[in-house]
Amino acid sequence: MVSQDLLDEYQINPYSTWESEMPKLVGDGRYTALTTTKFRKQVFSEWCQERIAFLKAEKGKEVKKDPRIAYLNFLELNATPKLYWPEFKRKYKKEPEMKDIKVTDKDREKYYRDYTSRKLYQTSDH
């Protein structure tokens, strides 16, 4: 439908209200293709429902990445047995891997200690 194309083209937020989005559309000639405001609101609400369902389906299809993988890669690049956990945490606190809330601070510390102890053990073997 012409009006739905108009809504897609103007990148209207489907979570917003008709009253807040309508001023963006008034200047376009396709806005007047629908004769009544009631019909325009109805098309808008139907489009919003369809668009929200589409966005939810797209989000469901996304591959869920394990945040621990990014953190373990970060450790591989930056961790060293020379730094204790508090020093490492202070040094890299602004890195995105250290800010990820999906990995708790307790788990980060545990992974760091495990990684550095394995690294220390590997270097002492050779």
Helix/sheet category: mainly alpha
Largest sheet: none
Number of domains: 2
CA(first)-CA(last) distance: 71 Å
Average pLDDT level: 85
Briefly, what CATH class of the largest domain?
A: Mainly Alpha
Order of helices and strands: HHHHHHH
Counting DSSP E segments of at least 2 residues, the number of strands comes to 0
CATH topology type of the largest domain: Arc Repressor Mutant, subunit A
Fraction in helix: 55-70%
In angstroms, what is the radius of gyration? 26 Å
General shape:
rod-shaped
Describe the structure.
With 126 residues, the protein is mainly α. The chain has two domains: 2-61, Arc Repressor Mutant, subunit A, CATH 1.10.10; 67-125. It has seven helices and no strands. α4 (67-78) crosses α7 (105-125). The protein is rod-shaped. 8% of the residues are buried. The model has no long low-confidence stretch (mean pLDDT 85).
Layout: helices, strands, pairs:
Layout: H1 2-9, H2 18-25, H3 37-61, H4 67-78, H5 85-91, H6 96-99, H7 105-125
